[in-house]
Amino acid sequence: MTGNDFILVKTAGRSLGLFLILLFTSFTASSQHHNFFQNPDTVIKGRVWALGIGSAAIYGSSLLVLNQYWYKDYAQRDFHTIDDAGEWLQMDKFGHVYTTYLLAKYSREIWRWSGLPRKQQIWIGGLSGFAYQSVIELLDAHSTHWGFSWSDMGANALGSAAMISQELVWNEPRFQLKFSSFPAEYNDPVLKARAINQFGERFTERTLKDYNAQTYWLSVNPWSFAKESDFPKWLNIAIGYGAEGMYDAKTNDWTDEQGVMYDYSHIRRTRQFYLSPDIDFTKIPTKRKGIRVLFQVLNMIKVPAPALEINGAGKLKAHALYF
Q1: I need a surface site. Which of 118, 178, 290, 310 has the fewest CB within 10 A?
Q2: Angstrom distance (rounded) from CA 117 to CA 115
Q3: What is the pLDDT of residues 219-277, one digit of tens each?
Q4: Of the candidates 58, 174, 39, the residue with the CA atom closest to the CA atom of residue 108
């Protein structure tokens, strides 16, 4: 571990430690009147301060680590913008929507613990997710390799709005944004090397960065729209979007670091649309708080299930099990 690495780990550890101290302080200040693990009906100032300062500390330290480990290998320059709306068949934009939605959603869940009025919880949670992603966009703006993207900002806003609007209108999430990824196969040695260069070699890297392997889902809960019906509460209908055949941002021809040119433009870059059943785990009744937390986490992921696919080439496929 280098000196810089040690400092970053130490900083992140201090932030987490500060957050835990604040939680303990708020607990001791309110334990006579409130159960620590229950969401109160009235504002508890100690919890508000704990969540506010703790969230800022964790956000700040995570951005510091991100800046060190993601951006340090790329040259820096003055603030600049780019137009990347047409790249990767918009898979990266779906990633922005999904990530911001999750940050907003779980931030709102955490703020329930503060006792703040419902609308304040919703707006704080929703805007904090957008703010976090916006700071990342500012880091991009000073990187030669990237730049500030208005389309990314629009996707971030859409993800935040997806949480806020549902909570304000329905007081519940009637649809979820979900994610799935299955390792893509690259049998051609050149394409395999290209995929490693673009998306990484480790499983975690490929899961998060390989746009050819990812699918983003809009998972709708029909029972929420017809609560007097006999439709199962936990059963969702999911619409998915994915793409394949992408080896560079816009076209399938590129030049490697040695100056060798490759032309794989004969491979079609294809959009994919899916229809599949899904599960809303939060609609499964349980009295155990730990299980409810687990169900919230599981709701991030689309469960493997049969699926129908229609792609940009006009082909219809049936998948016995798709993830």
Answers
A1: 290
A2: 6
A3: 999 999 999 999 999 999 999 999 999 999 999 999 988 889 999 999 999 999 999 99
A4: 39
> Residue holding tokens 């007081």?
171
Which residues make Cβ contacts (< 8 Å) with residue 64, sequence separation at least 6?
Answer: 8, 11, 12
Q: Position 222: which residue type?
A: P
Which residue carries 């068949």 as its tokens?
89
pLDDT digits (tens, 9 = 90+) for 173-228: 999 999 999 888 898 999 999 999 899 888 888 888 899 999 999 999 999 999 99
CB 300 within 8 A of CB 279: no
d(CA 292, CA 300): 13
Go through 9-26 and write b for each residue having 16 or more CB atoms within 10 A of its CB, e for each that does not.
Answer: eebbeebeebbeebbeeb
Residues contacting residue 1 through CB under 8 Å, at least 6 positions apart: 9
Looking up tokens 């006999």 gives 230
